[in-house]
Amino acid sequence: MTTAQHQFILEPYKGSRTRHRCPGCGKPREFTRYIDTQTGQHVAAHVGKCNRENKCGYHYTPRQYFLDNPTEEARAWLQSDQHLKTYTPPPPPPVDYIPPRYLERTRQQLEHNNFYRFLVKLFGEAEAARLADLYKLGTSKKFKNHDGYAALFWMIDKGGNICRAKAMAYNPETGKRIKAPVNAVKVWGKNGYYNCPKDRNPVADISKQILGKDNANTKACFFGEHLLSAAPSAPVAIVESEKTAMIMASIKPDQVWISTGAKSGAKWKTDPTVYHALEGRKVILYPDLNAIEDWEEAARNIAHVCAQVSVFRELEQYATPEQIQEGDDIADFYIPALLERRSRAAQADQEAQEGFTLPPGWQWETFHFKHGTHRQLMDSDGLPASWNLAPQTDQEKQAVAIALGQLDYFLTH
User: Fold this and answer.
1) Is cis: bond before 89, omega within 30 of 0?
2) What phi, psi does 113 have (nearest 5°)?
3) How many Cβ atoms sit within 10 Å of the Cβ of residue 31?
4) Rounded CA gap, 19 and 44, in Å?
5) Which residues does 109 contact at the CB level (< 8 Å), separation at least 6?
6) Same domain for 81 and 152?
7) What is residue 3's predicted lDDT score, i.e. its pLDDT?
8) Domain check: are 311 and 236 in the same one?
9) How many other CB atoms are there within 10 angstroms of residue 185's CB atom?
């Protein structure tokens, strides 16, 4: 049988049902089969092309098929498994792991890391340092804002291999990611820092930049995956955000908190090489409020490798419509209370140290400047207490005097 050029074409995309598991690399929904335009039928189950040209390269054409099987019409042959042996895919290229020395270099300037500064605000210096060490938090000068630098999240697999690195810009006061449009974030380039374009989110996978190879074959894995080996019997909690994984690791330390990095980050819901890390584990998925149904489908996809898998939906009972629309996650429900607790504790410590109690509604706030930090007393109107020219009570007068002393020290040192 001969093949006319126009008779056989790759099947046009009409949804996921037109994409299949590749017989070369085994990836689901990556294989496009050839169809006979005269009959509309597929040529054979293994005749087609893998979409992953660089990493797989499987391409078995109708011409090759008919040359290999001149008696293709024989049904007995098609019903056997011999047709699966007509092509041997090339071995996958080796994975390019990031050498550990690059990770270690990024862990030297945590005091300038905006996300780390927020962790200190939430938990204090000691606990923030413990979390940073646990997750190998790094600092990247890729982005600069609020007189600090970006958080660098390292993806380390169960074997301790460093797979990828992602830099993200955070607000050190709110702990929220800075998203486009942005004005205050600067990006490091060949000629120094420049303003981040308004159509660009300050987040970057810098793995290939670190490796110095645009065609590097990096491997996907969960953020925090390296912690699974250290606690083989602990339940595994999966969230979307790296930030949330680190915060919840302090709040609920009885679970191993790992992150996908995005709703479908690292193809964790469909790629066996990624979700294989969960084999035999009890897994609890904590989706963002706008991704619950999607993650319930993911639970069904990975259930066959897990000892048990469930989806945490209790947040829905307490969430407002605004929180659901914003896609808040479990950490968003804890952060306000943590900040309030730390604020009260700091105020109590300050009052004990200075021997007086702040007037109602007054509080200390910390401001970060290039040359260091400055604590300023704010009155009940949210204004610097040093501006208050008419304090009413003895308590307020004492507070204003202390605020003026703090201001004088700041200006003269």
Assistant:
1) no
2) -85, 120
3) 23
4) 14
5) 139, 149
6) no
7) 42
8) yes
9) 22
pLDDT at 132: 97
Same domain (yes/no): 354, 256: no
Tell me: pLDDT of 354 over 80.
no
d(CA 114, CA 186): 14
Say yes or no: 98 and 207 in one domain: yes
- The stretches of 231-360 forming alpha helices (DSSP H) are 242-251, 272-275, 292-302, 315-318, 321-326, 330-354
Residue type, 403: A
Phi, psi for 278 (deg, rounded to 5): -95, 5
User: Are residue 359 and residue 260 in the same domain, yes or no?
Assistant: no
What is the arithmetic mean of pLDDT over 268-279?
Answer: 90
Q: CA nearest 132: which of 159, 153, 162, 158?
A: 153
Say yes or no: 323 and 370 in one domain.
Answer: no
Question: Final residue of a domain: which of 291, 309, 327?
Answer: 327
Which of 302, 327, 352 terminates a domain? The answer is 327
Higher-confidence position of 67 and 363: 363
Residues 155 and 247 in one domain: no
Q: Could you give the number of structural domains in the chain?
A: 4
Residue 1 lies in a domain: no
Outline where 355-377 has alpha helix (H).
Answer: none
In this structure, the answer to whether residues 286 and 236 fall within a common structural domain is yes
In a domain, 118, yes or no: no
User: What does R_g of the chain's alpha carbons equal in angstroms?
Assistant: 28
> Which pLDDT band, with edges at 50, 70 and 90, does 223 fall under?
very high
Q: Name the residue with tokens 């600067």.
A: 186
CATH number at residue 276: 3.40.1360
The SS3 assignment for 57 reads: coil
Range(s) of the domain holding residue 236: 222-327
Mean model confidence pLDDT for the chain: 85
Residue 291 corresponds to which tokens in the numbers above?
């991704």
Q: How many CB atoms lie within 10 A of CB 135?
A: 22
Q: Identify the residue whose tokens are 């499987």.
A: 58
Q: Amino acid identity of 197?
A: P
The burial of 146, by beta-carbon neighbours within 10 Å (0-12 exposed, 13-18 middle, 19 or more buried), is given as middle
14 part of a folded domain: yes
pLDDT in tens, 225-245: 999 999 999 999 999 999 999
Q: How many residues does the structure list for the chain?
A: 413
Q: Give alpha helix (H) positions in 8-124.
A: 62-68, 75-79, 100-105, 114-123
Tracing tokens 């109690």 back to the chain, one arrives at: 357
In a domain, 197, yes or no: yes
